[in-house]
Amino acid sequence: LTAFNQKCVVVEFSKGELVMKAGETQQNLYFINKGLVRNYIQTDAGETKIYNFRTEGMQVTGYAVYNYKDNFKALVNIKCIEDCTMVQIPFAVIKYVIEHIKSGERLGRGMAEGHVVEMLNYIINRDSKSIIERYDLLEIEYPNIHQRVPQRMIASYLCITPVHLSNLKKSRKISIE
Q1: Mean pLDDT along residues 98-122
Q2: How far is the C-alpha of 40 from the C-alpha of 37, rounded, in Å?
Q3: Number of other residues whose CB lies within 10 A of the CB of residue 131
Q4: What angle do CA 74, 76, 114 make, to 5 degrees?
Q5: C-alpha to C-alpha distance for 48 and 46, rounded to whole angstroms
């Protein structure tokens, strides 16, 4: 544990800074101590598609694809929405833990399975739930997200336009009063 902790470094990123770029080799995994990031892709048409937000206490990774050369290529971009403080853990250290420490493989598998389940839930919810249900889930999964993220990013995550989101928010306020 001491050797592991010595390999971990606290790093800071500024608001708007790119932590990982899709298609590029990544060497590290991060855990957020403070701040907020978004995982997204840019389509060929220039549209931004947000897949999730990561906030305090969450793991940050580009859903890396491993190839035979020991390289991890990020599948998504990760950009800071706020100034962030993160713990940076080199993949080489994680690989060592998985291969050499009792229960390390189980830890690695659990982390990977967690990401798979999260993305499957996102896809299933996007395809099977109404926009109102998805909006409510967003508020449960990311408390105070509306105070931290611009409306256009929330709309992208929900797969709707900012105008649609604005109308949804107005209609919910009227129905609650």
Answers
A1: 75
A2: 10
A3: 14
A4: 85
A5: 7
Closest CA to 83 of 160, 152, 148, 170: 148
Pick from 18, 57, 67: nearest CA to 38? 18
Over the stretch 37-64, which tens digit does the pLDDT of each residue have?
999 999 899 889 998 899 999 988 876 5
Query: How many whole angstroms separate alpha carbon 86 and alpha carbon 10?
Result: 6
**Structural contact between residues 29 and 94, judged by C-beta atoms closer than 8 angstroms:** yes
Please say whether the beta carbons of 54 and 44 come within 8 A. Answer: no
pTM beyond 0.85: no
Tokens of 64: 């890396």
CA 19 to the chain's CA centroid: 11
* Chain centre to alpha carbon of residue 139: 16
User: Where are the alpha helices (H) located in 60-150, listed in sequence order?
Assistant: 91-100, 104-128, 131-141, 145-148
